[in-house]
Amino acid sequence: MRWLAVAELPHRLSLVRRLAGLRRRFTAETTSSVLPAIVQALDPVDRTTRLQLIAALGDCSASVPAEVRQLVLPDAVAPEQRALEAGILSVANRLAPAAFRMARPLPDYLTLHVRAEARLPLLAALVPSETSVGLVGVAGLRVRPFRRHVELYLLGTTARVSLATVSYDIWRDAVADRDPAWLNWRQPPPLTDAELSTVPARHALASSIASSLLRRTGLFPLAPNVVASAREACQVDWSGGASTSSIAAALTHPLCGLPDVPARIARVTDQHLTIAVANGAASVALSGPDLTCPAVTGETGRR
């Protein structure tokens, strides 16, 4: 009987609240913003999907299809979107590590809320510029300013990230010492020779991990450092905040963990806790404030 099938499921509102509470721990979103997102995501799903979500909430070893995970905390789908987000995280790690207050993710878009004191320095650092040491900022990044936010995008792609509460005035101040062409956002400056000659990020895993961590900014009070250490491996380290084991548990969660699942803790040493991703074909070495990690440099970040 239909009423029996319905009775097997917890109240729909209870499931929404549990998923919203889980996602908030990762993204630091407000309840008022995350609840509508979860309601909209769950609206078209069937009974089987709801049961999968319920099972994963109660069992951290549950296996959940990627399309179901995307309902709860969407990860970037397009490589260009992941590359843009990885570039933003790298700049923040070096110059404004405490910049982000919360993230609001969609599969093809990301909104970041930036702390007031970081808005101007972060935006100024993101804009690509040629210096005596080479190109700094994010190659190919351009900006569409609006009255109360700015939209960052990669020229010639659909990749976009919005910086909420970053006003047009802040944007104007950020490019005050740049070529006046930057102020004409309707006709953005073309790619420079330095940008064209910049080798695109070739480490797909590091780019994917960096993008995922930016979308999970609630886990880190300071932006983490993501470094490509080998073709199928990367290293993540951070200062302050949660312990390495706590972050590892979060990143291996069946619903809100890293997108390359199943992820599992594979190895622990005095310097790293390594998790295996993508069915064990790749690995991510984590090192938090409770572990001693030597300084490293790499493609997507440096310390």
Strand order of the largest sheet: 1-2-7-6-5
Rounded Rg: 20 Å
Beta-strand content bin: 15-25%
Helix content: 25-40%
Note poorly predicted spans.
1-10, 293-303
- Tell me the structural class: alpha+beta
Element order: H for helix, E for strand: HHHHHHEEHEEEEEHHHEEHEEE
Quaternary assembly: single chain
- Would you report the number of β strands? 12
Count of domains = 3
* Mean pLDDT rating: 87
Shape: globular
Distance between the termini: 61 Å
Number of helices: 11
Q: Main sheet, how many strands, which sense, barrel?
A: 5 strands, mixed
Compact overview of the structure:
This protein is 36% helix and 20% strand. With 303 residues, it is of the alpha+beta class. A 5-stranded mixed β-sheet has the order 1-2-7-6-5, covered by helices on one side. Strands 8-9-12-11-10 form a 5-stranded mixed β-sheet.
Task: Describe the protein in words.
- The protein has 3 domains: 2-72, no CATH class; 79-197, no CATH class; 204-287.
- With 303 residues, the protein is an alpha+beta fold.
- Helix 6 (79-95) packs across helix 10.
- The chain has helices at residues 2-7, 12-27, 31-42, 47-58, 66-72, 79-95, 119-126, 168-174, 193-197, 204-215, 244-251, and strands at 100-106, 109-114, 129-131, 134-136, 141-145, 149-154, 160-164, 225-230, 233-237, 264-268, 273-277, 282-287.
- The strands form 3 sheets. Strands 1-2-7-6-5 form a 5-stranded mixed beta sheet, with helices on one face. Strands 8-9-12-11-10 form a 5-stranded mixed beta sheet. Strands 3-4 form a two-stranded antiparallel sheet.
- It contains 11 helices and 12 strands.
